[in-house]
DNA sequence: TTAATATTATACCGATTGGTATATTTATAA
DNA sequence: TTATAAATATACCAATCGGTATAATATTAA
């Protein structure tokens, strides 16, 4: 790994939390130089523009979430157990190395929908992939006779994602942490009732 | 209504859609002068600063949603019918005079949580009030023997709100309109199963 | 160790940011 | 109709925005 690659990664590491909290329009070059201790020249020697850092930062934040889920997932054998990981991860994300600022999907989706098409596409792809993974677990669980397939698996998966993301939004807006717990208990019930 | 009050309202009318689409950090004074056809001097003659316009714009957008729901609600007699209004309004919000840019609660919550405490508080209050209304309908429906009370009414209400807001987020991210329909059908089922 | 190269810092650019003092116009009450 | 007050426009402010040309400094291969 060359020096440049290392600083590129360093820049992303330090700026990703800022993009995830202040948003993409709300994060300035000055925020980035202060967080990294580097100068503008140094940042622009490694990235073409602010957008490119934003895109890389989203990827970094999202991969962090994926990694946590995958790690927790490996402990589980049953499909219900694997599905429950999603609810548990989001329920306990203060205890886990979750990206600062909350869920990058939620944060990015609402800001980028009209203003930043590339970012929006990344979020869209992430959601589609999440949905497809959930449907795959449903199929495997049904084939293993662990539970019976819901009538509309896509609908089931999308409802689960929507409820989780909505739970995070409720906490961001109200500051009431128990709101997340209550809603995620509903998600758990949804899984256990399969 | 004085001239000043009328222009104040005019400014909010014209800028509220911009705040709701581009966000509060993403909306500039120039955006506001272009949308209104007024000058900065005129805007600052009626508002102390950009923040004050943002706050008034949020109120305007939120009241618009409240008004739609209230109007649709009056047609309904049963509590189930009233609860279903929420799902139906969000399912058909292209056909209704819904604020441009989508749900102001969702849009504002994710941006304002770290950057704009006053705005965040407004969103928080709106959500709490929404939850309380839902719980009140549940109580009335249970008292009328229309259905039986869910075990945890707060949880039921918060789950419904989270799922609706999550559904909107999914559409913003993926652009797939049928995602909203699918998720809101789950919300409908949640109500019908009471 | 040296020369070539890659990386980072300095100093600057024009444009735009939110905001304001003042002049001009418009509404309003006498 | 006129005087007064209210509302709007003009012209400006310093600060910051994202971005860049160039100079200085490290890195790296020979």
Automatic annotation (TrEMBL), chains A, B:
Residues within the DNA-binding region(s): 28-47
Highest taxon listed in the record's lineage: Bacteria
Matching Pfam families: TetR_C_13, TetR_N
Keywords: DNA-binding, Transcription, Transcription regulation
Domain HTH tetR-type: 5-65
InterPro entries in the record: Homeodomain-like_sf, HTH_TetR, Tet_transcr_reg_TetR-rel_C_sf, TetR_C
Any one GO molecular-function label of the UniProt entry: DNA binding
PANTHER family xrefs: HTH-TYPE TRANSCRIPTIONAL REGULATOR LMRA, TRANSCRIPTIONAL REGULATORY PROTEIN
Record protein name field: TetR family transcriptional regulator
Organism field: Chitinophaga oryziterrae
Highest classification ranks of the organism: Bacteria, Pseudomonadati, Bacteroidota, Chitinophagia, Chitinophagales
């Amino acid at each position: 790994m060359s020096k440049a690659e290392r600083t590129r990664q360093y820049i992303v590491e330090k700026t990703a939390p800022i993009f995830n909290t202040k948003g993409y329009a709300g994060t300035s070059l000055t925020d980035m130089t202060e967080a990294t201790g580097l100068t503008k020249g140094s940042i622009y020697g490694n990235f073409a523009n602010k957008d490119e850092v934003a895109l890389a930062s989203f990827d970094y934040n999202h991969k962090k979430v994926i990694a946590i889920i995958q790690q927790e997932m490996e402990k589980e054998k049953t499909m219900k157990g694997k599905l429950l990981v999603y609810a548990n991860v989001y329920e306990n994300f203060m205890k886990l190395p979750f990206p600062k600022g909350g869920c990058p999907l939620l944060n990015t989706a609402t800001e980028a929908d009209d203003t930043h098409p590339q970012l929006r596409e990344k979020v869209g792809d992430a959601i589609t992939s999440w949905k497809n993974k959930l449907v795959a677990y449903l199929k495997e669980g049904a084939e293993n006779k662990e539970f019976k397939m819901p009538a509309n698996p896509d609908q089931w998966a999308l409802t689960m994602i929507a409820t989780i993301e909505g739970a995070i939004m409720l906490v961001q807006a109200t500051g009431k942490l128990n709101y997340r717990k209550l809603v995620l208990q509903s998600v758990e019930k949804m899984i256990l009732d399969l």
